[in-house]
Amino acid sequence: MATATRHGRDVYGATLTRRQFVKTGGALIVGFSLAGRSVLEQAAEAAASKNSLDPTLAGSWFEIHADNTILIRTGRVDFGQTTAHTAYKQIVAEELNVPFEAMTAVVMGDTDRTPDGGFSAGYLEYGGANLRKAAAYTYQALLDLASSTLRVDKSQLSVKDGVVSGGGKRISYGDLVRGQQLKLTIPVTGDLTSMFGLTVTGTPPMKPTSEYTIIGKSFPNAVTPSKVSAKEVWVTDVRLPNMLHGRVVHPKTLGSTLVSAGELNKTRYPNAQVVVKGSLVGVVAPTEWEAIGAAQQIAADTKWTEWQGLPGDAQLYTWLREQADWKTTPVSKSDKSRGEVAPALASASKTLSASYELPFMKHAPMGPTIAVADARTDGTVYIHTHNQNPQALRGQIAMMLGTSIDNVVVRIYAGPGHYGRSNGGNAGAEDEAVILSKALGRPVRVQWMRPDDLQWSTQSPPAIANIRIGWDADGKITAYQADHYMPAMQDDRLVGALIAGLPTPPPPDIRPQAGSIGSTVNGISDPWVYDLVPNVAESGYGTFQLGQKASPLSIGLRDHSMRTPGQLQQNYPRELAISEAAALAGIDAIEFRLRQTTDERLIGALKAVREASGWQTRPSPHPKAAASGGTPVSGQGISVMLRSGTYWACVCQVSVVPDTGTVKVDKYTIAVDPGIVVNPLQLKRTIEGGALMGLSHALYEEMTFDQSGVTSRDWRSYPILTMNDVPEIKVVILNHPEIGAYGGGSEAANALAVSAIAGAFLDATSKPARRLPLKAAYVQSVLKA
Amino acid sequence: MAGITLTVNGTRREVQAPGDTPLLYVLRNDLELSGPQFGCGLSQCGACSVLVDGKEARSCVLPVSRVAGKEVTTLEGLPARWAGQQALPASEADPALHPVQQAWIDEQVPQCGFCQNGMMIKATELLDEVPAPTVAQIKDAFMSGASPHLCRCGSYSAILDAVQRASILMAKGR
């Protein structure tokens, strides 16, 4: 070890060593070390641990092989955005100057085979940035190697398609590493099992974005062929020797504890077994159908305490206004808050004051959560699952079992999209599978049934907002005040551990607790984009999750971030209120927005969507707007957003039949300016998907619940968008490479739909619908008011 | 527990399972076919769809005893089904992909991809009956059967593109 370090070479803060001669093959292997600690110290520590990547021996980020192929490792898990299989390869290929096709393998998520951890969201902002920097360090190391091998000064070298040339000589990366085992150690910081994982630090020189040739092209997703031809190994396909199928009988309510578990009918279910741990009742059997039947029989015979600690959906907004504690949690102020709003409102020529309401929504993956756990006699636990933050899950499972993370391995497979639900480590089945496997000493596969997945998972929290806007005679906003109210939305605790009474991190409290990033603080998540407004006051008020403190299980309605989290809840009231203000001012809704900003990228997106959508420039409401009648009336709405470095503007055209209360979206147009566009085709498909999820939020989605628990239990009681509702969709991609950065693209489109549809409803009917979703009964009540 | 004989993807298979076992569990656990997925177990989403004698059916609620003697086609069996319909000579009767699957790749349809088994099964059923469907006919097809076919990632518009592309590919093939 000391020898290796002594012979190491510094590469912009990374360390390159030539460890040993190997007989065949050869590789440049890129490892990592924590910033601020010596490589030696970290290496010695890592060598002593199990089931983690050893930074001195194992390839952590990349392996460059003698045959010129490259393997990429990322702790991020692709959930269908395709980023890990397309954009990540493009980013690495660009920095290394190799062809896209050289990247023949991507290892994702497995905790013992990937380096950085972190949640599967913000793919470009976090994971992409890590890979880009790691690749930049690697590129410099390769140049250094080539310089010494070719005996040509580094400054004379250039690289094309993985071949280094200079001074009349040339060598491929494969030949550079052939016969050697080279190790590059790069600096990182952070906590592996935290929400964010590790971050690559330092400032290696990176390729100027003006020289990009691979980023910006529409490469297909390498995983698609296996997924459409049934060759993919899905999480649902994992079978281990001696494995039992398990189902969990969840408590009667979100606060019920176990009185007595039912007795198994051994005549009907001869091979089944019941496992009880705390209030967790599990049923296992060698075949899945016997496990399902036995679980149903046990559920019918199990006795629970009663609990009624929730307001019920009919009382939700009243309860949030009158009962919830918004005072204990520190209030958040946006960094764009400025000026004096109260006098500006008082002196405005016109004002709007309105309240907006959003319901609980479910992530509702197409397949319920599933995990196969193998708790072995040597104390190690292997979990085969599908999760947005495998390292965080690993940390939580270790905590639940009172063991080191060295004893926990999480392996990741393809599965249904989670849309944020498991980005803190818990989808639901993982810990329950571990508890059952440990009790039985055999691998156990736990799959939730559809009602379990809707009733026992986390959900996107509800929100209310009070907005006040004042403007002058020229239609310039002089004051904007927003007070946003939302319960905590980041509860990462393992639900099975809570039911079983095993250790978990603390629930979200007024400040983040050790081992948890969740708090009740409601930050301002919707960046302010109207820079000409002189007086702005944006405040976020947070509170505890509904029923959580009162639940004997500490459960209640647990919340979790969902696609465009927090920002959806704040953008809908902001953008609808601004459309309402434009209507009251008698000014076209796009023109009204243009008057409030100097931001060229926002202006560009607004103008692009105006042109592409067939927008009619005129004040709202529509000249033929009507709040009654049996014939359809039509309207247009606009929304804008800045998220993760990307500017968005969206237009929806809708038709409403006032008497029946039906709302149909006819056309959805969106302009997106992410700066550098990494992969236009994949961006387009991801935006289309987000758009349709947004239509679903706007038209259908509302979790129902009574005083004891969630009553949405299947696709009939939690309907989502269907093929019949699909409008014409137009995606306008604005490529601005001169921005020099690539913004995110897999969120935002859903939230923009919600805000634009609400604006279009106002235009069509002249009445604002200030609550979601726009279901017939609610729409009729709005139009009759 | 009686032995049940069924034909899956052209091969006679005998399974030992209670007759009320839903076909899905037999396909996945006994026959190790991974195309059909468990989505709801309630016949409400379509992730588990298979063709039974050419008609789309929800395997999550269909007792295995009910398909005894019938022809079951899963996602795995689509390429051979296409070859059979084309009456290709035996030497060429092993296409890697059904045109529907090829179109799904060409159009980059899947996001997570979990529902796409049922979507491709439904598209195959439709294109067998209506070789050149209109957009309205495609939408109707995905609304038909035991329930609408659901996709949470919102790949519906990509599916509309892909079914039209598959229609063109199949017309060329014939």
Textual characterization of the structure:
- The complex is a heterodimer of chains A (785) and B (174).
- Chain A has 785 residues and is of the alpha+beta class.
- Chain A folds into three domains: 2-215, Aldehyde oxidase/xanthine dehydrogenase, molybdopterin binding domain (Aldehyde Oxidoreductase, domain 4), CATH 3.30.365; 236-307 and 363-455, Aldehyde oxidase/xanthine dehydrogenase, molybdopterin binding domain (Aldehyde Oxidoreductase, domain 4, 2-Layer Sandwich), CATH 3.30.365; 597-784, Aldehyde oxidase/xanthine dehydrogenase, molybdopterin binding domain (Aldehyde Oxidoreductase, domain 4), CATH 3.30.365.
- Chain A has 19 helices and 29 strands.
- In chain A, strands 1, 2, 3, 4, 5, 6, 10 and 11 form an eight-stranded mixed beta sheet that branches. Chain A has a seven-stranded mixed beta sheet with strand order 14-15-12-22-19-20-21.
- In chain A, strand 4 (62-65) and strand 5 (70-74) form a beta hairpin.
- In chain A, helix 3 packs parallel to helix 4 (123-150), helix 14 runs parallel beside helix 18 and helix 17 (680-699) crosses helix 18 (749-765).
- Chain B has helices at residues 23-30, 78-86, 99-106, 116-129, 135-143, 156-173; strands spanning 3-8, 11-16, 49-52, 55-58, 71-73.
- Chain B is globular.
- Chain B is 38% helix and 13% strand.
- The mean pLDDT of chain B is 94.
- Chain B is built from six helices and five strands; from the N terminus they run E-E-H-E-E-E-H-H-H-H-H.
- Chain B folds into two domains: 3-75, Ubiquitin-like (UB roll); 77-173, Orthogonal Bundle (DNA polymerase, domain 1).
- With 174 residues, chain B is α+β, with helices and mostly antiparallel strands.
- The chains are: A alpha+beta (785), B alpha+beta (174).
- Chains A and B meet through helix 6 and helix 17 of A and helix 1, helix 3, helix 4, helix 5 and helix 6 of B.
